[in-house]
């Protein structure tokens, strides 16, 4: 039964790794992998000395850290709060409402966000004007200072419900006798949350935190492409993934884009191994 999964990984993950060779070549579609000339680390040097390199790295790290700091604990908090809801019908309703955005594509979500933030009858601008907080509508998606906030907030809203499923499942596996014993000792529900619930699900939190750190240089792609498509936002929206797409696919610089992508992958593997090494001290590492 393991063979289908192994074949899937080999065909779609390991065989395509052969394409990494293009990072060390002046790759040509007509000459192929074997006929293209080898140039060593030429494209890596070009990438590191590119005028936009530090801007791209800054945007990637800032957006990733914001998503990690805000987006990672959000589903944990939601799961903890839902666990305290006694009315099952109300709890299921909240769960369903919070799950639904995950199943919407980023195309729909970005259109929804653009509609809310629009200067022409946008809900947010109308509300702010009604409250006399602004005099004229603000074009939020054309102002760089608002982009990171909009991007992170939208991502949290979209994924918080679905991401909380794993934590709710982990909480459901906690021995109820622990809560009964704590209640008999006079511990409040709030106290039980910190002394029983959180320590019990800490292995799950640790595993997901390791994976999140490993993806630190993957700041996002679809959300940034759709919400940050305005050229005015390029200075704050261009990250490694969007840069690789623009240079590699749109400009057909395959070798250069592969070098940038390989750099991203190597750093990500290093971060993953480093985070796992630190987590191993607590006994909750991935391997």
UniProtKB/TrEMBL annotation:
PROSITE patterns: ABC_TM1 (PS50928). It is found in: Cell membrane. It comes from Cohnella silvisoli. This is ABC transporter permease subunit. Residues 57-275 form the ABC transmembrane type-1 domain. It comes from the Bacteria. Belongs to the binding-protein-dependent transport system permease family. It is a multi-pass membrane protein. Its main location: membrane. InterPro entries: MetI-like, MetI-like_sf, UgpAE/MalFG_permease. The chain crosses the membrane at residues 5-24, 61-82, 103-126, 146-172, 193-217, 254-275.
